[in-house]
Amino acid sequence: MDLRSSLLVVGGSACSFKLFNTIIRFVPTPEPARKKAWRWRNISTSLAHSSLTGAWAALSLYRQPQMVEDLISSHSLFSHSLVAVSTGYFIHDFLDVALNQSFKQSWEVLLHHSAVISCFSLAVTSRLYVGLAVVSLLIEINSVFLHIRQLLLLSGQRNTPGTEITDPRPSVTYSVTSWINLATLLVFRVCPTAWMTRWLAAHSERVPRYVLMMGTVGLSLISTMNMVLFYRLLRADVLNNTSRNH
């Protein structure tokens, strides 16, 4: 895919996710989530992106396993299109968050998206490091369950009906989602990030200095965010529940 086509896919993707976000306005929203309608639309759009790109990334690596051996130059139209579509989503979400939340509330997301857009834009325009970008998108498999968990919280479905006031107990749906979320966080978020960090360190001599700097900063940022996210989820969904039971 040439540069012009790549940029058209990125732009078309950003517009498509914006359209999807707009359509959600006309879909019935659970009563508890109506007070945070923008948040509901934003997370629903993020869930659509995660579902699409997580499955697409896994399928890309299944169809072209040699990408794992050559993360620099190996790619296909299928995998290149994936990175372009995902870049469009992150541009859309960056603008959506920046326009609807204060910087104090959103700086972590904006920082993360800035790093991702920078790295993915390099892969899209140069057609290099596409394999690295595809491996990083395995993280979206975990994001599916992370976003489902957030939607359950927004819709007031965390606790079993009737126990909210006297003795709050997590619903079966929320409990299953939270445990799958923690498990996939370790498998599809922590492990790929660690593997990419090891790969970048092992191949630092083959990578231009500016790419090495971008990769190092991006992976350091994501690794830190992963640890913070894991701690927050563990505290909210495991430690707090254990302390209540005692």
Q: What are the main properties of this structure?
A:
246 residues; mainly alpha; 9 helices; globular
What does this structure look like?
The protein is mainly α. It has 9 helices and no strands. The longest helix has 37 residues. The protein is globular, with a radius of gyration of 19 Å. The relative contact order is 0.11. The mean pLDDT is 92.
Give a summary of the structure in a few sentences:
By secondary structure, the protein is mainly alpha-helical. It is built from 9 helices and no strands. The protein is 78% helix and 0% strand.
Q: Give the total of beta strands.
A: 0
> What is the approximate shape?
globular
Q: Pairing-aware structural class of the strands and helices?
A: mainly alpha
Relative strand content: under 5%
Which radius of gyration do the C-alpha atoms yield? Answer: 19 Å
- What would the average pLDDT be, to the nearest integer? 92
User: Major β-sheet, in short?
Assistant: none
Number of helical regions: 9
Q: What's the SSE pattern? A: HHHHHHHHH
The separation of the N and C termini measures 59 Å
Helical content band: over 70%
Low-confidence stretches: none
Write the layout of secondary structure elements.
Elements: H1 3-24, H2 37-63, H3 66-69, H4 77-100, H5 103-126, H6 130-136, H7 139-154, H8 172-202, H9 209-245
